[in-house]
Design a protein that fits this description.
By secondary structure, the chain is an alpha/beta fold. It has 13 helices and 14 strands. The strands form three sheets. A ten-stranded mixed beta sheet has the order 3-4-5-6-9-10-11-12-13-14. Strands 1-2 form a two-stranded parallel sheet. Bound molecules: S-adenosyl-L-homocysteine (SAH) and iron/sulfur cluster. The site of S-adenosyl-L-homocysteine has 15 residues, from strand 10 and strand 12.
C-alpha cells in the first residue's frame, strides 16, 4: 500500500500515470485529500469507479496515531503523535486573533544538540518522512475544522512554522515535497510568506532551499560571536557565523520577504548582556562595507523556556527589554516572543516527545565532564536566581 501523503502533486501525477490514469486525475485526488480531508476513496465522487477501485486496492491516506492531546489555558493545543518504534513527535497549534499557526516537527529528536533545547537533549532517532510531516498538518487542519465547525473553504491553519522537534534542513529531501504540498493551490494554498523554515544554520541546505522552494526563513543565531555560538549551537563549528550570514544574504535574493528572521534565545547570564546586544547590533547592522555587510533582518528574542536538566535560566524580563532596546535604537526591528502553551510544555524548545536516541549522544554526554558555558565574570558572582516566569 502506498501512502498518498508522501507525494506532492507532481509526484502524485507520476504515480497516477503509472496506474494508467491521466495526470489531471491527480489534481482531483490531491484536492480531495488536502482540501477536503477525505481519506475514503469510495467517497471521492468525481473520480471514475475504476480509479476508485484501484485506489482502494493499492493506496491509503495514513493519519498519525494520537498518543495524547493537551490543551493549554491560552488555547494552545499540543498533540503527541506516535510514529512507531518507541518514537513520538509533537505538533503545536497556536491560535491568535485572525490567524492560526501550526508548529510542525521534522525529525524524531535532533542531532544538532543545542545546549538550551529539550529536543536536542534527547538525541536523535530518525528523520520523519514527507508523509509524516504533511500528516501533522492534515490531522490538525481537518480535526480543527470539525471542532470549530468551519464551513468549506474556511481554514483553521493560516501559518506553518517548521519549529517543532528537529532540524528541518537536516531532513531536506523529505521536507521539500512537504513544503510544496503546503504551498500548492490545490493543497493547503499557504503563501510562501506564511510558511517558515527555522534552521540552526545548515548553510549548504539554506542555499538549496533558496533555489528549490524559497519560503520565509528564520535563522537561530543565539550568540553574537563564534566562541559562544560554538558552545550553544555545536553546528557553528562547521558553519560559523560569517558563512551563515553570507548564506542568509544569498537567501534574501529569492526570499518571499525582504528580511530574514533572527531567533535569539535569551539565557540568563550567558548571551543577554548589554555588550552582547551591542555586538549583535554591529554584526547584523554592519556598516555597509564588505568587512561588515550586515543582514536585512528582524530579531525575535525568545525568553528561554526551561526544562529539567538544562542547567540554564531564563533572562529576567528587564534584561530582555534592555537587550531589545539596544537593537531597536540601532535600527533593527526587534520583537520579544510571547510564550504560549508553557503550562503543557508546548513552548519553544520544550518539545520533547519520545525519542529512542540512536546516536548515543545522551549516553556520551553523561560520560563526559559537564560542558559549561563560560559566564562573564561580572555575572558569575551575582548569582541572580530568578524563577522563570509562567508567561512573558
Ligand atoms: N531546529 C530548528 C527549528 C526548531 S527549534 C532551529 O533550531 O531553528 C525552534 C526555535 O526554538 C529555535 O529558534 C530554537 O533555537 C528555539 N529554542 C530551542 N530551545 C528553546 C528553549 N528551551 N527556549 C526557547 N527557545 C528555544
Ligand atoms: Fe535541534 Fe533546533 Fe533544538 Fe538545536 S534548537 S537541538 S537545531 S531542534
Amino acid at each position: 500500500m502506498v501512502n498518498l501523503l508522501q507525494f506532492d502533486r507532481g509526484a502524485l501525477a507520476e504515480w497516477c500515470e503509472q496506474q494508467g490514469e491521466q495526470a489531471f486525475r491527480a489534481t482531483q485526488l490531491f484536492r480531495w485529500i488536502h482540501q477536503r480531508g477525505e481519506r475514503d476513496f469510495a467517497a471521492m465522487s468525481n473520480l471514475a469507479k475504476s480509479f476508485r477501485d484501484k485506489l482502494v486496492a493499492s493506496a491509503e491516506v495514513v493519519d498519525l496515531a494520537v498518543a495524547s492531546e493537551q490543551v493549554a489555558e491560552d488555547g494552545t493545543i499540543k498533540w503527541l503523535f506516535d510514529v512507531g518504534a518507541g518514537d513520538a513527535v509533537e505538533t503545536v497549534f497556536i491560535p491568535e486573533t485572525g490567524r492560526g499557526t501550526l508548529c510542525i516537527s521534522s525529525q524524531a529528536g535532533c542531532a544538532v544538540n543545542c545546549r538550551f533545547c529539550a529536543t536536542g537533549h534527547q538525541g536523535f532517532s530518525r528523520n520523519l518522512t514527507t508523509a509524516e510531516i504533511v500528516a501533522q498538518l492534515w490531522h490538525a487542519e481537518f480535526e480543527l475544522r470539525r471542532r470549530l465547525g468551519l464551513r468549506e473553504g474556511e481554514r483553521a491553519i493560516t501559518n506553518v512554522v517548521m519549529m517543532g522537534m528537529g532540524e528541518p534542513l537536516q531532513n531536506y529531501s523529505q521536507l521539500v515535497p512537504a513544503l510544496r504540498t503546503m504551498l500548492d493551490d490545490h493543497g493547503y494554498g499557504l503563501s510562501r510568506r506564511r510558511v517558515t523554515v527555522s534552521t540552526s544554520g545548515v548553510v549548504p541546505m539554506m542555499d538549496r532551499l533558496r533555489d528549490d522552494c524559497p519560503v520565509a526563513l528564520a535563522v537561530s543565531l543565539h550568540a553574537p560571536d563564534d566562541a559562544l555560538r560554538d558552545e550553544l549551537v555545536p553546528l557553528n563549528r562547521k558553519y560559523p557565523i560569517a558563512e551563515l550570514l553570507a548564506s542568509a544574504r544569498r537567501y534574501l535574493e529569492r526570499a518571499p520577504r525582504d528580511f530574514i528572521t533572527i531567533e535569539y534565545c535569551m539565557l540568563d547570564g550567558v548571551n543577554d548582556s548589554p555588550a552582547q546586544a551591542e555586538a549583535l547590533l554591529a554584526l547584523l547592522h554592519g556598516d555597509g562595507t564588505a568587512a561588515a555587510p550586515g543582514l536585512a533582518c528582524k530579531v525575535n528574542l525568545i525568553p528561554f523556556n526551561p526544562f529539567a536538566a538544562s542547567g540554564l535560566k531564563r533572562s529576567p524580563a528587564a534584561r530582555v527589554a534592555a537587550f531589545a532596546a539596544v537593537l531597536q535604537e540601532g535600527g533593527i526591528v526587534t520583537t520579544i516572543r510571547k510564550t504560549r502553551g508553557d503550562d503543557i510544555a508546548a513552548a519553544c524548545g520544550q518539545l520533547a516527545g519520545e525519542v529512542q536516541d540512536r546516536t548515543r549522544v545522551v549516553e556520551r554526554r553523561a560520560r563526559a565532564a559537564p560542558v559549561r558555558v563560560a559566564l562573564p565574570a561580572s555575572r558569575r558572582s551575582a548569582g541572580e536566581a530568578v524563577a522563570p516566569g509562567r508567561r512573558s
